[in-house]
Amino acid sequence: MMETLIAFVTALVILAGAGFALVAAIGLNRLPDVYTRMHAASKAGTVGSGLLLLAVGLHAGDLPTFARALAGFFFFVLTAPVSAHLLAMAAHKVGYPLSTQSVRDEMKGRE
Amino acid sequence: MTTFLLSLVFAFVWVAITGSATLHNLIFGFALSTLSLWIVRGEVGTRGYWRRLGRILSLLALFLKELALSAWKVAVLVMRPRMDLKPGIFAFPLTVDRDFEITLLANLITLTPGTLSVDVSEDRKTLFVHAIDCSDIEATKRDIANGFERKIMEAFR
Question: Model pTM greater than 0.90?
Fold first, then answer.
């Protein structure tokens, strides 16, 4: 009974994680410029891979693996925003334009 | 005393992560965490540790909630057939002034709904934030200032 329940939860978490990863990929394709794309990559991507790692930990069913999966998620959360931030900053520095839908740019000329 | 307890906690984390629950490994983990804590002894104020721990945990809970919400919002936005965006970069005046607080705030902002930190001004008084929906900047600024920024101040001052 317990094993079935864990298997069921694991399957659900894997599906959710894969779903978020897919959404991140679709977002990268559909959003108009590099800045908005970073939103999709950093958020949906982090949550997607985090859920997949969590599923690995749950499936293994022992504490060391679970702790390592959690540590992996933790490092993802630490590093994903830094890379998104660096990419966005570099893009702005070399003058990559915001999409034409953009309504404001208060950073212009203030770096 | 607090340092000793912290070392012990870290030692158990070490045992859990390395995955071998032997006495040798526990002692090794303890030595390692004592050494690491000694290296950062100047940065970690040990006074008021437990009260602070509660606030850090509350910050963590808020963050996990916002992260889930933000991934969901991006998902909904991306799957909508007509994407109605009003993206833009706005300047957020910083109240926190220490480097690691700014870093933490920038990271938290990046992982929360609709906002992405782009750069910090030279004088460290302004954070430039890219928002996917710039229709109500003042509300976004208020949310950040009353949410994460206040919690960071409570946890680390």
Answer: no
